[in-house]
Each structure stands twice: as structure tokens, then as C-alpha cells.
Amino acid sequence: MVSLRIALRYLFSKKSSNAVNVISIISIAGVAVASMAIVCVLSVFNGFSDLAYSRLSIVDPQIKIVPRSGKIIQSADSLAETLISMAEVRHAAATIEDQALAMFRNRQMPIQLKGVPSDYDSVTGIARTIIDGMYIQNDGIYNYATLSVGTAMKLVARPEFDDVLAIYAPRRRGNINPANPMAAFRSDSLLVGGVYMVEENDHDASTVIVPMDVARHLLDYTTEASAIEVALQDGVDERTAAAAISAALGQDYNVLTRLQQEEQSFKMIEIEKWITFLMLAFILVIASFNVISTLSMLIIEKSDNMVTLKALGAPQGMIRRIFVWEGWLISLVGGVSGVIMGVALCLAQQWGGFIKLSGDPSQLSITEYPVRVAPADLCVVLLLVVLTGLVISAVTSRINSANLRVR
Fold first, then answer.
1. Please, is 14 exposed, middle or buried when counting C-beta atoms within 10 Å of its C-beta (0-12, 13-18, 19+)?
2. Contact 397, 295 (CB under 8 A)
3. In whole angstroms, what is the distance from residue 310 CA to residue 312 CA?
4. Whether this model's pTM surpasses 0.85
5. Does the pLDDT at position 197 exceed 60?
6. Both ends of the chain: CA-CA distance in Å?
């Protein structure tokens, strides 16, 4: 196209006025910096999303089965045995989760009580997360509780203490005697066996893991459970296994992969990512308005050229398209340059970890910002740059239509 070739010549040729050169450079630089910022920020969100997903494999089961309605699975132990017979399943364990109250010495706090069977470590890697003591349920004499790090800190409890951890849960059945409020609770006492930390607030804040028989005693259950947690055979895809298990169990249960179990957390990361993208996109649009001044001054400077083109028979639409192409090329050059710089910075961060997280390094699981460049994000940024540049160029050319009407 002739109009595109002329626009390319205008873009790279030296202007007669230094002001036009400076404004052109500023326009390209503004779009480039905004594009670079968007690429870097989106890549950081991708890095944190990958980091969160990597943490799921520690304590979250590969597959979790919960009732579709209500909170209890009847005959959960026999259902777990049935699942173990499936080819995709390596192990299955019924678990119970509910609210309770924990007391240690003169401190107390509400907790998330989780009852697990003795072979629970075969389903998740809970034993690998222990930071104090050991993962133990029973030594033949005493029952033991495993505390999350948040629970241990609030209760000031450690494994070597001889004091017992008392756990209280409201009675589900029977009448309550107002004259004796404590009769409305079932209780049990355990020693603290270990403290674990997985660096996830939902797990670390207030969880207490106890033997299954203790949890069933506190919550007045027999063979019921609130979930069945499944470990798969090596090499089995989670989604494929979830579909097979769902088909085997029927419509009464929800079969969740690890990603689906933390769906809300990942959804929040995605929401934050794209809200941030919208704010930075607005900055990119503002930066692209520099193209208006560049085109306006260029139209004035090239008025003699337009007279010549008109004399040679160029139609008015072709002359207008020259400057539409010119504005679009300015935005495109800035956007592509920004994307290249953003990718380079992200790769440098991946390789060298130059930008560190603030805080005490001894308390952080990672010390530098995690990043991952996603090709889809780059396409979104380039598409935004292209559309923004095209719209602004078309609008600018229409605004300056009086200057483009040469005789």
C-alpha cells in the first residue's frame, strides 16, 4: 500500500523541526514503558500463581470427594475401600473437618479440627511439613495432636511440653442443660506431637490434626466423614481420574482436583491480575495520547507534501490513511519495544532474582519475586496497543481533517 509506505518513510525520516522529533520519541517511549510495565506485572502474577500451585501438592490431596448436599458422607470408610480398588487410585482416606475450641494451659482459641486415619501420610505429605516434633497419632498410650504453626503460636504450645491440649466440640444430639453449660460440649485431651507449616494461611492459621477416632468421639460420629481424600497412582492425570471417580460414584458427590479445591484462591489471584491489567491499560491509553500531538504537528509539517500528493492525483482518503498508519506505527513500535524490554526484564529476574521481596529473609519461603512470562499475556498486551493506536490515530486524523483538505 502506498499510504503505508509513505507512513513508514515519515516514521523513520528526520523531521525538519526538532520539536517533532522529540515529541515522536516521547510518544514511542511512553507506549513502550507502559507496555513493559504491563508485561512485568502480569508475569509477576503468573509467578505467584505458580508458587501457590506448587504449595498445593504438600498437604492438599490429589482428589477430594465431598457430598454434593449436606456436610456428611455416610459409610465413608466402606466408600474409601471401594475407591482403593479402582485402578487409578493408590490410596483413599476418610477425613472429618469441623469447628471446635482448643485450650492449652490458660490460652484458648477456635480451631479447624481435622480428624484423619493412621495412614493419612500415605495420602498427603503432611509428615514432610513438620517443623517441630514429629508427625505421630498414637504411641499406644496417648493420643497426639499435630498443630499448625499459627495454632502453636497462639496457644504457645510445643511438642516437648507435658501439658495436655484440651479440645471441646458442641454436642450434636441431646438436650442442653442451661444450669450446666459444659454438659453441652464433648471433650478430649491429647498431647502435642508436632507442629507443621505449609506457608498457606488457610492451613497454617488454626488447624489441629487429630486421630480419626478422637474426632469422631468429639463430633459424635461413627462411620461418617466430611470428605474422602485420594492419592493417585504415579502418572495418572488428576482430571482423568476425577472423571472416572465421578462416573463411579454417581451424582451424589463432588469430585475435586487440587486446583478445584483452591478455586477461590486462584480466582482471587486472577481477579487481582486483571484488575491491575485494567489500571495499567488505562495508563497505556493515556500515554498513547501523545500520538495526538505528534500527528498534529506532523500534519502541519507535511502540508507541502500533501499538496504535491494531491496534485499527483492522490484522493483525500489516501492522504488521511497516511496519518492513520503513521499513528498506528508509532504505537506499534512503542508496544513491541516495551514487550521486548518487559520479557527481557522478566527473564533476567528468573535467572538472577535481582528484585527481592521486602521482609525478613529468614521468615520468607522465597526471597525474590517469582515471574513467568505467558505468551497469552503478550498477545493481550500487543492487541491492546494495536487497538489503542488505531483508534487514537483515526480520531486524530478526523480531528485534523481541516488541515488534511488540501487544494
1. exposed
2. yes
3. 5
4. no
5. yes
6. 23
